[in-house]
């Protein structure tokens, strides 16, 4: 009888332990946790009541998570704009160089309803080589989208010029800051009428690292990373978390702060070594990065990877490629299965996780180009 009771007790203990472990995993990686901003007066984000994915879908979705977690876990026509799209059927080899040119760009529309600024822009092209696969222009935003073939990989580059940095925005999944709240880059782009969007730093995959979005401070705990601050004057500023507080960055005029990294280029010099990597991630990955060329002039870069068609880039290769584009400062965002670029409602690249799935991964946030903030 005692042996039988001991066996039952063991089974009960095992059941309790399994239940607790399962709940802990769901709570950490699946169950949504909306949170308040660090500075409540600096944001007015309303928690939405419906999270699109079911718990089961989220479990499958989280099997990949983000590049950082892998190592341990509609068309916008804002104004009467002119643009052209269409996926090229051929790939041109990239010839390196650093001269900025506008010879391949469309003319700016003279009758745009988007007149938030006084600067008339002309869509530009970053560098010789590559194939133009899309463009957009209005009185405040110009974008030239190119596809390159380098390092046995497909690389997509959006050359962006804006009249004011307020056109460079961020958005959170479900317009809610918190843990395990995710959506696809394309859905978030559509909900925010984004002309162009890329995935952000997937802040929700970590419980530390500064988060400032559109001038609101959401998280001030240090992740001991080199963070990117995009300032009110449009310039990039790299800081080491812990050495400069998030509150100080906000006071000094930071509009966006991303915590992922590493820094790829600083003042025109490559900041990563040939063997440097994000945690224990594979050496060649899909990548997402943003670069600064000059006043209100940026590039969004996304590369495919982990497939037979596109090997992916190392951090050093990504930095070298962006340097050849003439980029002065560049920062690595979340990559791997998260890497996604959306232009005018269309997914431009081929998002993939471990080469097995070509579907988008749901992420916490995006960086996008849209209409001027009020």
Automatic annotation (TrEMBL):
**What range(s) does the Phosphodiester glycosidase domain occupy?**
192-369
InterPro entries from the entry? NAGPA (IPR018711)
Q: Which stretches are tagged as biased composition: Polar residues?
A: 69-89, 106-124
Q: Where is this region: Disordered?
A: 69-124
Looking at the Swiss-Prot or TrEMBL record, what is one Pfam family this protein matches?
Answer: NAGPA
Spans of biased composition, class Low complexity? Answer: 90-105
PANTHER family found in the cross-reference section: N-ACETYLGLUCOSAMINE-1-PHOSPHODIESTER ALPHA-N-ACETYLGLUCOSAMINIDASE
Q: What is this protein called?
A: Phosphodiester glycosidase domain-containing protein
What species was this sequence derived from? Oribacterium asaccharolyticum ACB7
């Amino acid at each position: 009888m005692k042996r039988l009771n001991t066996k039952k007790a063991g089974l009960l203990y095992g059941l309790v332990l399994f239940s607790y472990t399962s709940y802990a995993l769901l709570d950490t990686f699946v169950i949504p946790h909306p949170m308040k901003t660090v500075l409540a007066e600096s944001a007015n984000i309303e928690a939405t009541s419906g999270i699109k994915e079911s718990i089961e879908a989220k479990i499958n979705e989280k099997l990949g998570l983000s590049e950082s977690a892998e190592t341990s876990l509609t068309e916008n026509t804002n104004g009467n704009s002119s643009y052209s799209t269409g996926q090229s059927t051929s790939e041109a080899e990239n010839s390196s160089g650093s001269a900025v040119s506008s010879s391949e760009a469309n003319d700016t529309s003279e009758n745009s309803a988007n007149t938030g600024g006084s600067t008339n822009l002309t869509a530009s092209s970053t560098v010789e080589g590559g194939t133009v696969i899309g463009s957009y222009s209005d009185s405040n935003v110009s974008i030239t989208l190119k596809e390159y073939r380098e390092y046995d990989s497909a690389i997509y580059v959006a050359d962006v010029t804006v009249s004011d940095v307020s056109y460079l925005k961020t958005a959170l999944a479900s317009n809610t800051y918190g843990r395990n709240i995710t959506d696809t880059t394309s859905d978030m782009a559509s909900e925010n009428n984004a002309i162009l969007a890329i995935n952000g730093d997937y802040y929700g995959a970590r419980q530390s690292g500064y988060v400032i979005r559109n001038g609101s401070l959401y998280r001030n705990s240090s992740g001991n990373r080199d963070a990117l601050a995009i300032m009110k004057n449009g310039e990039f500023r790299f800081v080491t978390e812990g050495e400069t507080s998030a509150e100080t960055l906000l006071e000094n005029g930071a509009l966006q702060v991303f915590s992922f990294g590493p820094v790829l280029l600083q003042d025109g010099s490559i900041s990563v070594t040939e063997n440097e990597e994000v945690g224990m991630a594979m050496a060649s990955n899909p990548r997402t990065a943003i670069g600064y060329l000059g006043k209100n002039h940026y590039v969004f870069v996304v590369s495919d990877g982990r497939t037979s068609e596109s090997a992916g880039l190392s951090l050093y290769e990504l930095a070298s490629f962006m340097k050849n584009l003439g980029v002065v400062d560049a920062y690595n965002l979340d990559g791997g299965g998260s890497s996604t670029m959306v232009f005018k409602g269309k997914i431009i690249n081929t998002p993939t996780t471990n080469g097995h799935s070509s579907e988008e991964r749901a992420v916490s946030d995006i960086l996008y180009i849209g209409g001027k903030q009020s």
